[in-house]
Amino acid sequence: MKFAGLVEYDGTEFAGWAEQPGQRTVEGELRRALGTVLRQPVKLSVAGRTDAGVHASGQVVSFAAETGLAPDLIAYKATAVLPQDVALRRCTVVPDAFDARKDARSRSYEYRIVNSPVRSPLRRRYAAFVPRELDFGLLRRAAALVRGVHDFRAFTPSRTYHVRFERIVSESRWERAGELLTYHVTADSFLYGMVRSLVGTMLEVAEGKRSLEGLERLLEGAERRQAGPAAPARGLTLVGAGYEDLSFGG
């Protein structure tokens, strides 16, 4: 039987999603919890392999298991044995051919920034702090340039496993609520480190350190060193993945 799960985690204390020897990872914790509950080894497929320090409210996984437990009970029992910074919020039965990574048509992220002269202790784990003055109009115009089909090789490390650098970005926009700035971005898929590098580069535009034309040239394909620095991991959250036919209900 095949299941899909909706996973939420605070990435602060994790070395990323992917299991690594000697490291605390989200995949490692979730596999152990499901193995305990289902009393069998579990292999996970995941919509987005988040980096160290990155959070998720809408991560999607899939796994196969022979069990008589109802999906809701799997989620409840797994979360009961998981550490406090990760939870299997929902679980549902899916077709045997379903794969959380291969079947995902899009992934969506949000990046949060506290733009204020004084830092916010309550938001320190989930938002980056930028005390410098930013031109929000330029930030919005920069985000608009990112929409569409572009070559994003300037926004991923030079040494990479990627062979295709073109991505289709369907949503790219900033919104402001007082001192909190939130970047919303959705694409068919993302290169390693792409969102954080885009944010770091757009911040340079908003600070007057880089022109909109310069950003536009980067989106045609350029070397990583020509783009801005990656923004801190703590501001980034994977908020969802899109599928043709998948619902976790309420």
UniProtKB/TrEMBL annotation:
Its EC number is 5.4.99.12. The keyword Chaperone does not apply. This is tRNA pseudouridine synthase A. It comes from Rubrobacter taiwanensis. It catalyses: uridine(38/39/40) in tRNA = pseudouridine(38/39/40) in tRNA. NCBIfam families: hisT_truA. It is an enzyme of class 5 (isomerase). CDD domains: PseudoU_synth_EcTruA. The gene is truA. GO terms for biological process: tRNA pseudouridine synthesis. The active site is at D51. Homodimer. Belongs to the tRNA pseudouridine synthase TruA family. Keywords: Isomerase, tRNA processing. GO terms for molecular function: RNA binding; tRNA pseudouridine(38-40) synthase activity. Substrate binds at Y109. Formation of pseudouridine at positions 38, 39 and 40 in the anticodon stem and loop of transfer RNAs. Residues 7-96, 142-244 form the Pseudouridine synthase I TruA alpha/beta domain.
